[in-house]
Structure formats: structure tokens, C-alpha cells
Amino acid sequence: MPLVQNSTNEPVAVIETRLAHDTHRAASALLADAAKRPSVPGAALTELRDFLVANLHHHHESEDRELWPLVIAASSERAAGLAALSTEHEELDAALDALGSMPVEDGAGRDALAKAAIAVRDIVDRHLAHEEPLLFPALRELSPETWDSFSEQVIATTPPVGAHLMVGFLDQVGTAEEVEILLSRLPEPLQQFVPQMRLAAKETFAALAPAK
To answer: Comparing 26-30, 170-174, 187-191, which segment has the lowest mean pLDDT?
Structure first.
């Protein structure tokens, strides 16, 4: 399937990365908020928590192992800054492991989950505030071919955990054109499932929303 034409002024590398980051912001904020409310079903919390943990772990591993070497090859002076970001990844990965081990239950268990989710949210926000001013200019220097190869590898290795939530969050944080740019990279057999994934995400989001 041909990629969607990009009519914005930003390279696709920046668009895709910004959408991924904004998804992490939105998912971590939603979990921190929903975990504080006893009315939210444990199944919906588990679904969101497991998506966030798996997706963030994979995102950081892809950056450390694949993307940082590409950036350094194009601009070696950024190596020290990227090393500092990888150290922050280790801090966040430890917080994610703690979050992933929390039971999703009422009472003290739910309180512990909420505290762990808040810790992850705060680290995500702080880390991205450090990363984006360094990374976005670097991404503008990568060739489209280099980014395409990296992006395809990331999508091919992304954990399937909560894939429908990824589609749902992308719809929240991106424009229709931006979302289609990213979704056009999905393997063609998966394209037919996007509408169903959107519906499933809406159901989960409804369960996580405050009671009316």
C-alpha cells in the first residue's frame, strides 16, 4: 500500500515521533487519572496499563538500539545528549516494571497502582521535555530513506498488546492526515482491521472515563 502523501512542512520522522510521544503522554495521564477512581473496572485499567508498559519499553529499546546510532552517524556531536536520554530511559523502564507488577484491585492495591501510574506519568513528561528539543532537530537531518527503514522495523517489532488503543490514542493526538501517514505504514492485511480497532478503543476509553 503506498504511503499517504505528506502535505505538512514537517518531515514524516518528526510527525511519527511526535504522535508516538503524545500518545505516551495521553496514555500515562489517562492511567494516572483513571487508577484513582474506584468506579473504573479493573479490566479496563489492566488493558491500558499493559499497553503503556509494553509500548514504552519497546519505544525506548528501539531508540537506544536503532535510532540513536542513526542520529549519531548523521551528527556525532549529539552523542552525549543521547547518552543522557538513554540514562533517563533506564529510570523510566524501572518505573514501568514497578507499574507492571502492581495488582489491579480495589483498596490498597488500587492505591499502589495509582501511585505507580503517577510516577510513570511524571517521568514521561519530564523525559520528553528533555528529549524533544534534541531529537526533533536531529530527525530533520535524517534522510527519508533512513527513517523509512527504521520506522518499518519499529512497526514490525511492536508488541501487539493493546494495539487498538494505539489507534485510539493516535486519533486523539493527531490530525486525520497525520494519523493516516502513520497508519499507512501498517502491513496491508492489518489495514482492514483499523475500523474495528477504533471501535474497540472507544469502548475501553468509555470504561476509563469518569462516571456521569
So the answer is: 187-191
Residues with Cβ within 8 Å of residue 173, at least 6 apart in sequence: 19, 22, 23, 25, 26
**140: exposed, middle or buried (Cβ count in 10 Å: 0-12, 13-18, 19+):** exposed
Q: Which amino acid is at 207?
A: A
Burial class (CB in 10 A: 0-12, 13-18, 19+), 135: buried
Residue 170 near residue 51, CB atoms below 8 Å:
no
In this structure, how many other beta carbons lie within 10 angstroms of the beta carbon of residue 201?
A: 21
Of 153, 143, 162, 170, nearest to 75 (Cα)? 143
Radius of gyration of the chain, Cα coordinates, nearest whole angstrom: 17
List the grid coordinates of 185. Answer: 505504514
Secondary structure letter of residue 76 according to DSSP: G
Number of Cβ within a 10 Å radius of residue 210: 9
pTM: 0.93
